[in-house]
Amino acid sequence: MFRLWGKEMKDGRLLRDTVICDDSASSRTQKVLSALEAVCIAFDLSKPIWLDSNIAEFRRLDKTRFHQDHFVETIDFDYLEIHVIEE
Fold first, then answer.
1. Mean pLDDT (10-residue bins), the chain, 87 residues
2. Are the C-beta atoms of residues 80 and 39 closer than 8 Å to each other?
3. d(CA 20, CA 73)
4. Structural domain count of the chain
């Protein structure tokens, strides 16, 4: 089972979080993108823009952070972090 943890952080504190589970036969990339979309829907956010630094960090650590620069709209938290916690 694939599980991705999404969390909003502000001033070093967890504001809210959710875990998205996916049992589909999709590729890992598709699972990550659909889980990120589900996190954004749950938190009522626009989808962030993946930069090369996000892709590299995600490949290395299975997690990445999206700051204000990654969103078109203004956000009221410091960053959104996604982390694969189970594959």
1. 94 95 90 94 94 94 94 93 91
2. yes
3. 23
4. 1
